[in-house]
Specification:
The protein is mainly α. It has one domain: LemA-like domain (de novo design (two linked rop proteins), Up-down Bundle), CATH 1.20.1440. It contains 6 helices and no strands. Helix 1 (about 5-60) runs antiparallel to helix 2 (about 65-85), helix 1 (about 5-60) packs antiparallel against helix 5 and helix 2 runs antiparallel to helix 3.
Length: about 190
């Protein structure tokens, strides 16, 4: 083998390695995007359930106006944050929304007729199911973020990531320890 052939072979191997790493980064990027889409779907489902839940409780607890306003404001803030695409704002607004939902459920405990309502019980089940799905979607998202972040930071894939502008992604974290607890809907 001549020196030219060796140099060409090395160049071909490097090109193939770059292509392989690039394709792996694209796969990981798409998995993170898919995982975010899963979170987005579950959050929208949650946002759609909240007005029904508030209406069900309103009929029994009309004098709890402040609680209803807080839940409505938190829902609006969460929807606005989600539309912005800023992950930190979404996480903060979701924390606030979880807190207001806990307050709403605390208020509903004072009304035995409400707890016995079939409509309210079904809304509780739906919200509990949605909360579980949001939690699972967050785990899936964070796993994929971890995977792409490892590739973006580790050698030699970090070289390819920098060449093609792949960036680390933020985890979907909950800062408020109280918000880390699932919404309790037991009656």
């Amino acid at each position: 083998m001549t020196l030219t052939q060796i140099i060409v072979a090395i160049f071909v191997v490097i090109i193939l390695l770059v292509i392989f790493i690039y394709n792996r980064l694209v796969i990981l990027k798409n998995r993170v995007d898919e995982a975010w889409s899963d979170i987005d779907v579950q959050l929208k489902r949650r946002y759609d359930l909240i007005p029904n839940l508030v209406e069900a409780v309103k009929g029994y607890a009309a004098h709890e106006k402040g609680v209803f306003e807080s839940v409505t404001k938190a829902r609006t803030a969460a929807m606005t944050a989600e539309e912005s695409g800023d992950l930190k704002k979404v996480a903060e607004s979701e924390n606030a929304l979880s807190g207001t939902l806990k307050t709403l459920f605390a208020v509903s405990e004072n009304y035995p007729d409400l707890r016995a309502s079939e409509n309210f019980m079904e809304l509780q089940r739906e919200l509990r199911d949605t909360e579980d799905k949001v939690q699972a979607s967050r785990r899936f998202y964070n796993t994929n973020v971890r995977n792409i972040n490892i590739k973006v930071e580790s050698f030699p894939s970090s070289l390819v990531a920098n060449m093609f502008n792949f960036k680390k992604r933020d985890f979907f974290e909950i800062d408020d320890p109280a918000a880390k607890e699932p919404v309790k809907v037991n009656f």
